[in-house]
From TrEMBL:
It is a single-pass membrane protein. Residues 1-24 form the signal peptide. This is Uncharacterized protein LOC107267508 isoform X1. InterPro entries: CD80_C2-set, Ig-like_dom, Ig-like_dom_sf, Ig-like_fold, Ig_sub. Residues 36-123, 137-241 form the Ig-like domain. Keywords: Disulfide bond, Membrane, Signal. Its main location: membrane. The keyword Hydrolase does not apply. It is found in: Membrane.
Length: 295
């Protein structure tokens, strides 16, 4: 066979394949949840357009291991292959879907669906997508602050720690129900993952310069959210109280530190300070009045 006729022959084969392809399989799409909670069911779907052909087989794999096969023209049409950790609900599985029940972390991996058109083309296509099974935290996040009472102008320091999970949650903060906004406040957030046996926790810190306009009726709510994609979300709130702002200049001993040691546990003391402040102001007003009357 000379070179020329070889080329022609190949062109004809390609043409035949193209024509055959027109009545074959196209638009194969796999849909697998990115993340699913362990213990839940997972619905995996495969959609395709067979045009005028009929379906010969649909096969599902985790990695390269086949666990489910559907052959519409055979009886029985479902076959489930034993694979460690995989339980298929046949009543919720068909020529598009396969339903895995009570999934566990070990089922994290890449899933494939393989679709084959019937004779004569037996056109076959494979699509794959990852799925991660999440062990969510069994405990709520916790929040601790260096001080829970502080005046405007000072820096609030708080830490938030999630419960252990796989993978670790992301920690986000809100202030009075709003996201931290770097145009209207000065803050710094940091986050790190901490290994805990086979799990991980996220430990995050917030440093926020407190300005008086952040307080609403003398209070400020800081909330910390621990989230894993759309499968887990839990939060905890911390109430911060505004401390009387003019204390330090009036009572010489009320430096931020000595105030800290007495402030949190003894609101009565701070109330006393406020009374002193009011009394001092009254005396000043009386003095000013006296001066203007004397003139
Ligand atoms: C789900 O699977 C776990 C093991 O992965 C097992 O301990 C549990 O009993 C199962 N739950 C149900 C409802 O089958
Ligand atoms: C927050 O965490 C950091 C580092 O982990 C620690 O140094 C600091 O004391 C913690 N702050 C509070 C209020 O617990
Ligand atoms: C604040 O906003 C600017 C501009 O949007 C951004 O580049 C910067 O990273 C932000 N800083 C923080 C701490 O989020």
């Amino acid at each position: 066979m000379d070179n020329q006729s070889g080329k022609i022959q190949r062109a004809i084969i390609c043409l035949l394949l193209l024509v055959g392809g027109a009545t074959g399989l196209k638009d194969v799409k796999i849909k697998v949840p990115d993340m699913v909670r362990s213990g839940d069911d997972a619905l995996l779907s495969c959609n395709y357009d067979l045009e005028s052909a009929s379906l010969y087989a649909i096969k599902w794999y985790r990695g390269d291991v086949e666990f489910y096969r559907y052959l519409p023209k055979e009886a029985p049409s479902h076959t489930v292959f034993p694979v460690q950790g995989i339980k298929v609900d046949i009543s919720k599985s068909d020529n598009h879907d396969v339903t895995l029940v009570n999934v566990s972390r070990e089922l994290t991996g890449r899933y494939k669906c393989e679709v084959s058109a019937d004779a004569p083309s037996f056109h076959t296509a494979i699509k794959e997508a990852p799925m991660e099974v999440v062990d969510v935290p069994e405990t709520n996040p916790t929040i601790v602050a260096e001080r829970q009472r502080l005046p405007a102008g000072e820096t609030l320091r708080a830490n938030c720690t999630s419960g252990p999970s796989r993978p670790a949650p992301v920690i986000k903060w809100t202030l009075n129900g709003n996201h931290l906004n770097n145009d209207t406040m000065q803050y710094k957030v940091q986050s790190q993952r901490v290994a805990q046996y086979e799990m991980e926790m996220t430990r995050a810190s917030l440093e926020l310069k407190i300005s008086s306009d952040l307080f609403q009726d003398g209070r400020l709510q800081v909330r910390c959210f621990a989230e894993i994609s759309n499968v887990y979300r839990d939060s905890v709130e911390l109430d911060v109280t505004e401390d009387a702002p003019l204390l330090a200049p009036i009572t010489g001993d009320a430096s931020p530190h000595s105030h800290h040691s007495s402030g949190c546990g003894h609101p009565v003391l701070s109330e006393t300070h406020r009374l002193i402040l009011v009394a001092t102001t009254m005396v000043n007003v009386v003095n000013i009045l006296r001066v203007s009357i004397l003139r």
